[in-house]
Write the structure tokens for this entry.
Amino acid sequence: MAPDLPSRQQEILDVLNKKSHVKLNVFNQTMEVFNQIKEILNEMSNDLNDLLDNTNDRRVRLEYRDRGKFEAEFKFADDVLIFSMHSDVFQFDRDHHVWKSDFVKQDINNSYCGVISIYNFLYDSLKYNREQDLGYLVGRIFINKDKYFLVEGKRQKNKAVSTFGKKQLGREELLSIIETAVLYSMSFDLLVPPFDLVKMASVEQMNDKIESAKLQTGKRMGYKYNSDDVLED
């Protein structure tokens, strides 16, 4: 029979066992959701390409690419969405409104979430490997151990904290999140930067531009990118 452990050691073991179990469940649920996102992106590219007018211009067609276990790429016209799953599990910061929800107050373990981020890049930024070009976060999906979810992002539904814990994340919700991100990205246009921002350029920049078109580009270069319409209480 094993001897009794000192109380603090037993407490450490109890916390480790409980927390590791919760985090493992969160990771597995998030990975399942991410694989489902990949399936939806692949299906969307095939279905929408079939519906496009007869055209041989590949720049118009949609393309899905699996970039590995934790990344997926979805190209449409001049835009690319990068879906990125973080391998770690997070809690919301202490100032986050989610702590006011009954769902989290009832069980603090509900606050542990996996995160899938959606970034919007210009296609040419990736095609020409312009490493200084900017992409923009247009959405984040938080998934907890029971697949309850919260969306943070531009024009997204289910972003109100009050909805957290009331609906599990399924295919219909994922499709809506993806379609919203695509539509927002297509409406989020490339703007000419202010004249004063680009009135000077170094020889190095010009040489880089001539060699590989690496002068920094982004959809809102020089303009304030507001975090409006991201999350609601």
